[in-house]
Design a protein that fits this description.
The chain is an all-alpha fold. The protein is about 75% helix and about 0% strand. Helix 1 runs antiparallel to helix 4. The longest helix has about 30 residues.
Amino acid sequence: MKIIDPRLKIYLVIINAVLVLAIASPVALGIAVAFTIGVLYMSRIKPSALLKSVGFVLSVVLLLFLILMIWIEPKTALYGFLKCSIIVSSAVVFSKTTEQVDVFDGLVGAFFLRASTAKWVYLAIDFLPQLRYELDRMKTSRVARGERPEGKGWFKSFIGDVKVFGPAWKNTNVKSKRTAKAMDDRCYDVSTRRIRTKPLRFKAIDFMCIAVTVIYAAIIVYLEVRIRFYGKLI
C-alpha cells in the first residue's frame, strides 16, 4: 500500500466513503466490509495497531449509536456503526501508509489546492492519529508517576482514554500548530515550491488499484439499483 500514488489513495478513500454512505442493502454492506478487511490485510496493519489507533473513536461512535437505538431501528443503528467503522478504517490505512510529504503532495496534486490550504487539510487529517499518540503517552506517564494503571481490556482502556482526553486534546492542538510552523519553515507555502526529486507518476500497481475499485464500485451500484428499484438482487 505504501507504493501506491498518494493522489490515488486520496481519491479511493473518498470514493469508498461515498459508496459506503449510499449503501442500504445488507449484501452490499457485507461486500464493503469484506473489501475493507482486504485493504487492511494488504496494508499489513495489525488488528491491534488498528484498534489502538481508532479504538477510542469507535467506542464513542458505538456508544452514540447505542443511544440512537432508542429512536431508530436497531438495524439502522448497526448499519450506521458499520459504515462509520469502514470509513474510519479506510482513513487509518491512508494515514499509516502515507508519509507527511506524500500527503501534502497528494493533496496539492489531487485537488490542485494551494500549498497553504493543503497544509491545513493535512493537519486536519493528521489530528486523530496525533490525538491517539497523545492519549497513549499520557496514560503511560500516569503509570510512570505511580498512579493507578489502567488494566487490560476494552472498557478499562476506554476509561483511561476518557480520563486524559482533555489534556491530550490540548497537547494535540499545540503539536498541530508546531507542525504548521515546521512546514512553513520548510517552504510549504504558496510562493515557494519545494524541489521535487521524485515527481508523482501513476505506475502499474496504481492502474491495478483503479481497476479493482471500478469493479467494486460497479458491484455496489448494481446491488443498490436492484434493491432500490426492483426489490431483488437478480
